[in-house]
Amino acid sequence: MYTSEKAPAKINLTLDALRKRPDGYHDLEMVMTTVDLADRIDLMDLPYSGITLESTSGLVPQDERNLAYLAAKLLQQKTGIDRGVKIKIYKHIPVAAGLAGGSSDAAATLRGCNRLWNLGLSLEELAEIGAEIGSDVPFCIYGDTAIAEGRGEILTPILSPPSCWVVLAKPTHGVSTGDVFGKLQVDRITTHPNTGAMIDALQANSYENVIANLGNVLEPVTIGLYPEVYKIKQKMEQFGADGVLMSGSGPTVFGLVRKESRAKRIVNGLRGFCDQVFAVRMLGV
Ligand SMILES: C[C@](O)(CO)[C@H](O)COP(=O)(O)OP(=O)(O)OC[C@H]1O[C@@H](n2ccc(N)nc2=O)[C@H](O)[C@@H]1O
Ligand SMILES: Nc1ncnc2c1ncn2[C@@H]1O[C@H](COP(=O)(O)OP(=O)(O)OP(=O)(O)O)[C@@H](O)[C@H]1O
């Protein structure tokens, strides 16, 4: 048996940190949505408990350290199933970019193996298993748009943003999520995003109010480490993006625009200035 799963990237329309927890994680409040930039995960059933993994990208581990491998292994352990899987990752999402690429691969592997091995687990059960792999995995199990709280695993689905184009620009370097959170001083945050106003904007299907309420408390932290992120933000604004924000812990910056022609203009303007640039649609609209 063989199956193929799409593993889309996410962006954070808002990201707020409320407190640092005794376990070292932060309690967050975020609005996340999926965009049409995706890895593809091909999965082939093996009649014994082995797992093999191959990726088209040399930038991700090709062994048991890969989050997709970890996902398949964890699913075997949780269910006691005596079957294995051959995993092939066609990597399109930039790595260590703040776009949850690895988390989405893990989530797609959980969904795909659940089908391949006829496990009959619900999405809720898969999300619970996924939370052991990473904070973004539960969101990636469901996709679409959600409010995420706690470590990121407490999810409430919400209407997706109005239809628009998303320009994604990633600087050359990647960012370690742990390093960025490690430098965040929650009691020194000066501007918190207005999560409630973003939720209202989505419920009202108001593009203007989505733009007006974009915010991410990790952005100044990452800019402090990599000032290039700020330069990309400025360039996107100059080239005509309606709203611009860093996604997750960065360093990818996204810009929202209504028209494809404007998105293409921004992509052309940024090409040569940063490593990877894409113009994609929002998903789930
Ligand atoms: C920044 C976001 O992408 C926003 O969606 C996520 O919060 C990060 O999710 P992720 O990459 O799945 O992160 P994890 O692998 O769970 O955690 C990596 C590291 O980030 C920090 N971390 C992560 C999530 C969280 N709520 N608080 C944290 O402080 C911790 O130091 C942790 O060791
Ligand atoms: N399948 C995978 N795809 C991408 N990275 C992976 C994968 N498996 C393991 N990794 C490792 O995980 C690290 C983070 O990669 P990833 O692309 O998921 O970061 P990210 O987009 O910043 O994630 P997030 O937005 O969830 O913080 C990288 O250092 C990479 O080597």
From TrEMBL:
The active site is at K10, D136. ATP binds at P94, V95, A96, A97, G98, L99, A100, G101, G102, S103, S104. GO terms for biological process: isopentenyl diphosphate biosynthetic process, methylerythritol 4-phosphate pathway; terpenoid biosynthetic process. Keywords: ATP-binding, Isoprene biosynthesis, Kinase, Nucleotide-binding, Transferase. Residues 66-143 form the GHMP kinase N-terminal domain. SUPFAM superfamilies: GHMP Kinase, C-terminal domain, Ribosomal protein S5 domain 2-like. GO terms for molecular function: 4-(cytidine 5'-diphospho)-2-C-methyl-D-erythritol kinase activity; ATP binding. It comes from the Bacteria. Pathway: Isoprenoid biosynthesis; isopentenyl diphosphate biosynthesis via DXP pathway; isopentenyl diphosphate from 1-deoxy-D-xylulose 5-phosphate: step 3/6. Pfam families: GHMP_kinases_C, GHMP_kinases_N. It catalyses: 4-CDP-2-C-methyl-D-erythritol + ATP = 4-CDP-2-C-methyl-D-erythritol 2-phosphate + ADP + H(+). InterPro entries: GHMP_kinase_C_dom, GHMP_kinase_C_sf, GHMP_kinase_N_dom, IspE, Ribosomal_Su5_D2-typ_SF, Ribsml_uS5_D2-typ_fold_subgr. Residues 198-274 form the GHMP kinase C-terminal domain. It is an enzyme of class 2 (transferase). Its EC number is 2.7.1.148. Catalyzes the phosphorylation of the position 2 hydroxy group of 4-diphosphocytidyl-2C-methyl-D-erythritol. Belongs to the GHMP kinase family. IspE subfamily. This is 4-diphosphocytidyl-2-C-methyl-D-erythritol kinase. It comes from Croceifilum oryzae. The gene is ispE.
